[in-house]
Design brief:
Layout (H helix, E strand, L loop, with lengths): L14 H11 L4 E7 L2 E6 H17 L7 E5 L4 H13 L2 E5 L5 H10 L2 E6 L2 H12 L7 E4 L13 E3 H14 L3 H8 L5 E6 L9 E5 H13 L8 E3 L7 H14 L2 E4 L6 H8 L3 E4 L1 H16 L3 H22 L8 H19 L7 E4 L6 H10 L3 E5 L9 E2 L12 E2 L4 E4 L4 E5 L11 H7 E2 L2 E10 L5 E6 L4 E2 L5 E2 L1 H8 L5 E7 L6 E7 L1 H10 L7 H5 L2 H15 L8 E6 L19 H7 L1 H8 L4 E9 L5 E9 L1 E2 L1
Parallel strand pairs: 1-11, 3-4, 3-5, 5-6, 6-7, 10-11, 12-13, 13-14, 25-26
Antiparallel strand pairs: 1-2, 8-9, 14-15, 15-16, 17-18, 18-20, 19-20, 20-21, 22-23, 24-25, 26-29, 27-28
Helix pairs in contact: 1-2, 2-3, 2-6, 8-9, 12-13, 12-14
Length: 639
């Protein structure tokens, strides 16, 4: 049964003490589930604590010491989560990396600190670490893997299975009676919980070490703000290297005893979501867009009666939700429309997508499209926006269920102070704020001033305390005529179109704004299939005149919301997506503006010199790691 009391604040609280409290007070409750070969396997809190303790004993036995770092590589897996908690017990830096991280990016992490070991999901990730070791990372002595396929007969130095590590820990417990208590009490609140990295949009990613006090304070603040409650059921599918996953799947899950469900693999997330039917779900705007597209495609392929019922009730519900957001009164018979709609349309859709029990639904990371946001609210899913940063353990401001506005991110969470600097920058103060960038005193001094975290985001507070985020302060730009604009703000609104995956707005010190866009191959490809538009590749489809009409409509719709001096005049649909492997975006899909502007300098010049076309020749990196060259002539299109 869920608790109504506030999450307890205990002096000296650590990840180990919270874990052991859960194991003691709720030993048989389910802490984790992991799907393996189609079957969900459950782990209780007592089993979870025992696995973490034994892992910590094994890692300690390998000689890991306070201040060392361990790479965590792979998709979400129960054993990798156990490993991160075990490392926190030892005061060792747990350093998760995105599964698709390249060897060059891993080399930056190794050069940054003393990385002595790695926990890897499978052979693919082990191979990366072995390459890293061959490239000179000789201090990386121990590699522990979860999935033994392809590795069972390997006898390379330092390579061992998870079972081997647990065996080391078990032997130590049998021979050292006081070890268990020593491990439980070894870490302090200011010791590291996780070692993450900033997105690196303007340079190399900076190391962010969040302490155990930081992450537990953020979870407590989120609970006080109504983001989540005790005993939530969640799906742990977000990348482990993203602060949002640690904040929810680890810190909040420990403090409030969530049941964390780990999907079989990334390709099965939607199916696993349907089976679990979580009570809490956090997703980026693009994920919500993708689910909406799937719903709409399914309806268009359904029988005429079902299609008519869907459009009747959804159109009614969307209109009702817009009235509510505008502060207008409900209609006298709105309750009846909601009841019938839930019975015939809304309920079945939510059940089909695993959202029938969803009470806390959030989007974050960037702005979400108004149509998408209103759709889910109309469906009966009380989608809300939150605002967070890695440096503040992910939770800054949250919309309350009854105070949702399209242009704000809600009020600051309890425990988080917010003020706006003279130049419009958002400043934060909270126990969840980190102590500074790892071994980077210059960057730390710029970011932490007099106890306030300078977020680098521009925004303002409304009279009733709601926070509005405009974009990065560093990205505030001016046209040649002096018109002030934030390109990221405009780019996000371009991406409200389901047909645009990425965008780069150009216009600093120029007479007018233009843009380069990358189509969403799934949405545009489906549209092309339905409408009989032939194509053979991404590069081919992106240049079709029919697709240009779709994109032009998105630009025209955006221009209606912009002041006339900032309306976009021309655009180019690029022949390829922006790719993290090409350095054009980060792993969290944030634009590396300088890289993009340098790489597409010729395209940008054509947007302004009156050209009708521009020829591009680019090297692309395929999923196999091979490279190839793409030559295309791109039309310069007028909005």
């Amino acid at each position: 049964m869920a608790e109504n009391s506030k999450s307890r604040t205990i002096a000296g609280e650590t990840i180990a003490s919270v874990l052991m409290r859960n194991a003691s007070e709720h030993p048989n409750d389910i802490a984790l589930r992991e799907k393996e070969r189609g079957i969900w396997k459950a782990t209780t809190w007592s089993q979870y604590a025992e696995e973490v303790l034994t892992c910590a004993a094994g890692l300690d036995g390998l000689g890991l010491k306070r201040g060392d770092a361990v790479l965590i590589l792979g998709d979400n897996r129960v054993r990798l989560y156990c490993g991160m908690l075990a490392l926190a017990m030892l005061g060792v830096h747990a350093m998760p990396a995105f599964p698709g991280t390249t060897l060059e990016e891993l080399q930056l992490f190794v050069d940054e600190t003393s990385v002595v070991a790695a926990l890897a999901e499978d052979q693919e990730q082990v191979d990366k670490i072995l390459e890293l070791r061959s490239a000179g990372a000789t201090q990386l002595k121990h590699i522990v893997y979860d999935d033994a396929r392809g590795l069972g007969f390997s006898e390379l130095p330092g390579l061992m299975s998870w079972e081997d590590l647990i065996e080391i820990g078990s032997r130590r417990f049998n021979g050292e009676p006081g070890l268990r208590e020593d491990l439980i009490g070894r870490a302090k609140p200011d010791d590291p919980a996780v070692f993450l990295h900033s997105s690196g949009t303007t340079g190399k990613p900076k190391g962010v070490v969040l302490s155990q006090k930081n992450v537990l304070a953020a979870a407590r603040n989120g609970h006080a703000a109504g983001a989540f409650d005790f005993e939530e059921e969640i799906l742990a599918y977000l990348p482990m290297a993203w602060v949002g996953d640690y904040a929810i799947s680890v810190a909040a899950a420990l403090l409030l005893r969530f049941t964390v469900n780990v999907p079989e693999r990334q390709e099965t997330v939607l199916r696993d979501l349907r089976e679990i039917a979580p009570t809490f779900y956090l997703a980026a705007p693009r994920s919500w867009d993708n689910i909406l597209t799937t719903i709409q495609v399914g309806i268009e392929n359904s029988r005429p009666l079902k299609k008519r019922l869907y459009h009747f009730f959804m159109d009614w519900a969307i209109a009702a939700e817009r009235r509510k957001l505008d502060g207008k009164n409900r209609g006298a018979l709105e309750w009846l429309g909601r009841f019938l709609g839930e019975l015939l349309v809304f309920g079945p859709i939510k059940d089909q997508f695993g959202m029938s029990r969803l009470t806390n639904a959030f989007t974050g990371g960037e702005a979400i499209g108004e149509d998408t946001f209103v759709f889910y609210r109309a469906l009966g899913i009380k989608l809300r926006q939150l605002y967070g940063q890695t440096e503040n353990s992910a939770i800054n401001a949250i919309q309350a269920p009854d105070e949702v506005r399209l242009h704000t991110v809600g009020k600051p969470a309890p425990g988080v102070e917010v003020k706006i600097a003279d130049k419009g920058e958002i400043l934060l103060k909270a126990d969840s704020v980190f102590a500074g960038y790892y071994r980077n005193p210059a960057a730390s001094a710029e970011t932490l001033i007099d106890g306030w975290l300078h977020t680098g985001d521009a925004g303002y507070l409304e009279d009733d305390g709601h926070l509005v985020v405009l974009g990065r302060v560093s990205e505030v730009m001016h046209t040649k005529a002096g018109e002030r604009y934030v390109p990221n703000y405009i780019e996000n609104r371009l991406k409200f179109s389901p047909y645009i995956k990425d965008a780069a707005v150009i216009g600093s010190d120029r007479d007018e704004l233009t843009a380069m866009v990358c189509i969403d191959i799934d949405a545009v490809g489906h549209w092309a299939e339905v409408n009989g538009v032939p194509y053979v590749s991404y590069a081919d489809l992106s240049q079709r005149e029919e697709v240009a009409t779709l994109l032009r409509e998105a630009f025209r719709r955006l221009n209606k919301t912009l002041p006339k001096p900032l309306q976009l005049k021309r655009f180019v649909s690029l022949h390829k997506e922006f790719d993290p492997d090409d350095g054009e975006i980060t792993r969290t899909r944030k634009l590396r503006r300088k890289v993009v502007e340098d790489r597409y300098e010729k395209v940008i010049a054509a947007l302004y010199d009156g050209s009708k076309h521009v020829h591009v020749s680019a090297v692309v990196t395929y999923e196999t790691g091979d490279t190839g060259r793409v030559d295309r002539t791109l039309p310069i299109r007028e909005v």
